[in-house]
Amino acid sequence: xxxxxxxxxxxxxxxxxxxxxxxxxxxxxxxxxxxxxxxxxxxxxxxxxxxxxxxxxxxxxxxxxxxxxxxxxxxxxxxxxxxxxxxxxxxxxxxxxxxxxxxxxxxxxxxxxxxxxxxxxxxxxxxxxxxxxxxxxxxxxxxxxxxxxxxxxxxxxxxxxxxxxxxxxxxxxxxxxxxxxxxxxxxxxxxxxxxxxxxxxxxxxxxxxxxxxxxxxxxxxxxxxxxxxxxxxxxxxxxxxxxxxxxxxxxxxxxxxxxxxxxxxxxxxxxxxxxxxxxxxxxxxxxxxxxxxxxxx
Length: 297
Prior knowledge:
This protein is about 60% helix and about 10% strand. It has helices at about 10-20, 25-40, 45-50, 60-130, 140-160, 165-170, 170-185, 200-220, 255-270, and strands spanning about 190-195, 225-235, 235-245, 275-280, 285-295.
């Protein structure tokens, strides 16, 4: 944008402007500046400036130059304020989503502890109480099985919270372990194909969480029989694709829980400068595509 003579450095241009503008034009410019400070700027710059020029009235070129600059500066300020307001709305939405996700995760852990481990330990306690005075045939083996089941549930919950394999052996090992767990607990067969070097901890964690959330949606909502996870890399980027043969969905009519999951995946990826998109249709399965700039450890 060309600077106005009013805002250029040095005394000469301001003095020249003072001698070029008529008193009426100066008053009109002051009125314009005041109105622009409180009123929205229209989309048509020429119309904004033209509204100040009366029919048949002589208007100097200096007046039009300054008026153009004032309106353009006001539009720049309005655009900046709009972008800042949009960012603040996004920040508030993200914060609300994070808080909601935290509460959902706490609720899920509490349900797992109560429904799985709590029931196993209660049955173990009752078995110990009934068998303390007399040896019941097969009771010791049953109690041992209950204790083993409780320990397995503890390990499963801990693995879901922070898979140790992810840090120790990398993304491929963690994804293959998660796929085996899904096959065992949900009956969904997941094919995993990973062609990646070790990446930074942050990138591997985000990719794992995206795949985990996508596969969780497959189990909960897709009614799929099979899914696949493919992770590849070039010198510039890492790509993750999660597909399933389930019932698909309409993104415009999602349940709140699934919408939150998709938003969470997208926000994780975007925090690393990446992109995430979903391709799906009712009855046609779904595919999640995540792309993140390469950041090797």
